[in-house]
Amino acid sequence: MRIIINSSKIPDCYELQPKIFEDERGSFVKTFHEDVFKSYNLETHFPEEYYSVSFNNVLRGLHFQLPPQEHTKMVYCVEGEVLDVVVDLRLNSPTYGQFTTFDVSAKKANIIYISPGLAHGFYVKSDRAIMMYKVSTVYSPNEDTGILWNSLPIPWGSDNPIISQRDQSFISFNDFNSPFLYQPKN
User: Of the N and C termini of the chain, which has fewer Cβ atoms inside 10 Å?
Assistant: First the structure.
């Protein structure tokens, strides 16, 4: 499996670009290969996978799970295009409180790899987007939470997105007491 792994400004957050095989039938993309991920010291245990279907101007986020159910998350778009956002919540991280953005699309076939202690959200730019998620821990309602989408100066693309009541009720980044601690890798 040929895959390009690009670092982002946030440590332990990567944009993965797998090879896209195209012919007259369409395209084929391999999104995960255990041996390749192991060779890059990336998470390989993903006991849960799911997808969301969202429409234009929908914003989902900024989500994460608290310890002890924090998880690595891999996200990619199989239909449409989104602005994907990752926020560093890890105390002592050189990028604590900072965010990075990615244009994620089915056409590009890119994958965002999000380590524990990072919040994730996205804004739908196309008419419809289907996002796939692989997570390293099973959904835990008691640890599932988030921070308020507009509590950081993220350029979402809309000041008035369609957003769930739950996501609107999250606390602001400044009021979040982070349990996450940055652990530099040797």
Answer: C
